[in-house]
Amino acid sequence: MCTLEKRGNLFILTLTGEDQHRFNPDLISSLLDLLSQVKAQATSGSVLITLAQGKFFSYGFDLDWAQAAGSERGAAKRLQDMADLFKPVIATLLSLPMPSIAAITGHAVAAGFTLALSHDYLIMRKDRGILWMPEVDIAVTLPDYINALFKEKIGDASVRRDLFLRGLKMKGDEAEKRGVVKAAYDGEAEVREASWHGEVYAEIRKGLYPQLSAILGLSHKVYAIARL
Amino acid sequence: MCSLEKRGNLFILTLTGKNVEHRLNPEVLSSIISALSRAKAKSTRGSALVTVSHGKFFCNGFDLDWVNATGSKQEAQQRFDYSLDCLTQLVQAFISLPMPTVAAVNGHAAAAGVVIPLCHDYVVMRRDRGVLYVNDLEMGLKIPELYMAFFRAKTSGWALRDLVLRGLKIKGEELLKMGIVDAVYDGEEGVTNAGMKMADDLARRKWDGEVYAEIRKGLYSEFCGMLGIASKAIGTPKL
Question: Where would one find the signal peptide in this protein (chain A) (predicted)?
Fold first, then answer.
């Protein structure tokens, strides 16, 4: 479901398996548990990177599990329960005492997009994977904290409108152009490939001190994740 | 004042307002609100609304002749405040409309008139004629905090500053660069047809109107919060 690995200063949170990494109550609990561990073990110089295996970053809440309730009302309640359980995950990320990077290795949809957006830096693939908020298409409204997250993280009102009211499926290069992600890379190899030594460490360290880096005139580029 | 026509899935709202400048007074605003109520009553999945206008002006603001046609400064202020309240009700009606909305701006929109196109989900405008002009600063009028929240829902950063703090008459091309309009077209027929086509394309997505309106209100959360408009959660996914 999800794993946490520590490599030097780096906390690597991985959504494991080739499935859609749907957030059901179990996975949400695990995520919260692992993020709490990250928070507890944080030292100065720590950085979190979140990524996923397979074609999907995450496709959002587990709608199958919701519908397995057997009734419309039951499904709505299960969906509400997942939204309520997920809120502390977002809260923990927002208050994480270290920079965080979401390496969007595949489709990030609904709560999956929300998880990515709760990180400080988003990087994604140019050639594969979309960012998508399908709520308007499946006729559900957005929880208030998700609405507020998008409002504060995405400054461009027309981007928010396109994501929420048009159900736009945004690919990497559009996401980079319109300021939703920091950078988009070609191919999984580029996103996944990184040296843990030297350059990546230095770039990540620069990422720890963005203001200082700016004053020193250091350009800052976020690379991708190490080969697993 | 205004007229509402239904053509297939499309509701076409034509603004005529008072006189050639399509000015707004409580009577005009009330008739537009009525038209929106009628559209809402007849709406289904796959409805959309496009607002159009004809001539040199889209809407040049409040009917100041009516506002000032009173005995005292105090009464004039009351009439102005009343006009503003009616405008606020119209904005609420637009943002709770259970269908996508497009404004096709054929000509000038100034002061309160700028609010009308901006309460739509999408704005298309003429490239060759027409400006948006938020002239409150020039007139020595403070923009009410509620409307600052409204503008903040539509734009931000330097574009917001240029819209409200510079007394600029901004043309379509510039508004496109600012991200305030979505596309520009040549000629009144050009922009009107483009507006209708855009509304048609949106209608074809057959969104649930009630949910669409609630999600839209979320995009105006600050504005709605100030008015105490609660948002409804709708949680049964239609897959």
Answer: none
